Amino acid sequence: MDPTDTKIVEFQATVDAGRIGTFINRAEVIGTSKIGDVTDSDTSTVGVKGPAINITKSVDPPWGKNGFNNEFTLIIKNTGEVILESVTVTDTLPKGLTYANLASIIPDSVIVNTDGTTTIEWNDIGPLAIGESKTIKFSAKFNGQEINSINYATTEGQPPNGDPVSNDDQVEIQKHPGINPKETLRIITKSYMKRCDLCYTQELIREAKLLISKQITHVEEDNACCMPEDIIEELKIETVRKGLDRDPRYIKALTLLEKSERLCKEANEAFSKGNYGLAQRLTKEKCEAIAEAIKLMIEVLSFK
To answer: What does the pLDDT average to over 80-94?
Structure first.
C-alpha cells in the first residue's frame, strides 16, 4: 500500500445459536515496511437481542361438576427483544376434561389419546411482534373421571435466527360436591416462578437505565430469583458515586433486596414440597420486594 492508500475489507458473521448480550469484535492490522512493522487495532461493539416467550393460563371457574363447562384462557406474549416469526401452542387436557369446542382461535388438530387425555394444537398463531400478545379461549367439560384435573399448556416461538424459545403453564380444576363449591388456588409451574415480568416492568427498567452511566443493552433475566442483577448493581454504583448511599430510602432498598432473596429460596422450597399455594404467595411477595427496591433507588438518584 502506498501512503494515504485505503483498503476496505467487509465480511459477515453469524451469531451462534443461543448467544445473546453484548459482544466485542476486535480487529488488528500489521503492516510491514523497509524500516519495520507497524500495527494498529480497533474494536466494535455488537449487541445481540434475545428472544423470549411467555404463556399464562387461567380457568373460570377453577372448580367443576359433572357436565359443567369451564372456560380456559391462554395468553401468549412475546416478552423478548426480537419478533417471533412463528408460534405454536399445545394444550393437553387430562382425562377428567372433555374438549367442548367454542375456541376463539380454531385449533389445527384435536386428538383424543389412548390414555384418555386430549391434545389440542395450534400450529402457528404468529407472528408476534415485540411485546405483542394473543389470546386463545376455549371450553372444556368436567366429566368427573378425576377428582383433580391438571391442565397443561406449552408454547414455542421461532425467532429470525437461533433456537426456538418456549414456556409453559398449568391450572387445576378440582371437583367439589355440594351447592357452593370452594374455589381452589391456581397451581403454578417453575416457569411461573421465573416470570420476571411479575417483578418489574420494562418501563421501570428503562427509567433505571436513564440514571446510570454504564450502557446496558440487555437485562439478564435467566436467574433463579428473577433479579435484574446488572441493573441493580449499576444503580448501587451510581448511588455510592454520588454519595447518596446513606439515604434511608437506599438503605431500605438494600433490605428489600435481601428479603427478596430469602423469599425466593422459601418459594422454591415450598414448591418442591408441593405446597403450591404458599409458593405462589411467596413468589408474589418476592416480586413486590424487587420492584419496590428498584423504585426506591430510582427515587434516590432522581432527587434534585
So the answer is: 93
